[in-house]
Design goal:
The chain is an alpha/beta fold. It has four helices and five strands.
Length: about 140
């Protein structure tokens, strides 16, 4: 097993949910919800975070429609992942199906008694953790 942290990314229009794996790549923990400023500044922020946290791989949630097809949101995520890849060519960037992760994150927080304000602040980070954990689990299952 390699020892590198993975960054999970849940790209939204207003917020970018971020999650980080442990060094062994076994578990994902919510990191933060970053409020978007603009494409260039968003990328700069993520690159700085990736370097500070010594991230070796990135998993970007790909929002597919329930039919499995890709809509405009998926195209935006693909463009974002490509832009990140151009800035960080040494890193592997994976796209991972994120259908219903935000819904699951919201339900988890409600069940845990989180206030509406707290849910707004953290739901994207929790969704990123669910995306990343799904990826990590699938990778382990295929090893």
């Amino acid at each position: 097993m390699t020892e590198t942290r993975l960054l999970g990314v849940d790209l939204g229009e207003v917020w970018i949910g971020l999650a980080l794996s442990d060094p062994l790549g076994l578990t994902a923990q919510p990191l933060e919800s970053y409020r978007r400023v603009g494409p260039r500044k968003d990328l700069q922020y993520l690159i700085r975070l990736i370097e500070e946290r010594e991230v070796g791989e990135i998993v970007v949630g790909l929002p597919r429609l329930m039919s499995g097809e890709e809509g405009q949101a998926a195209a935006t995520c693909r463009e974002f992942a490509a832009a990140l890849g151009r800035r960080l060519p040494r890193l592997r960037i994976e796209l991972w199906d994120e259908r219903l992760t935000t819904v699951e994150a919201e339900r988890t927080m409600i069940a845990g008694g989180a206030t509406r304000r707290r849910r707004r602040e953290r739901v994207d980070a929790l969704a990123a953790a669910l995306i990343l954990q799904g990826f990590l689990d699938a990778r382990r299952a295929s090893d």
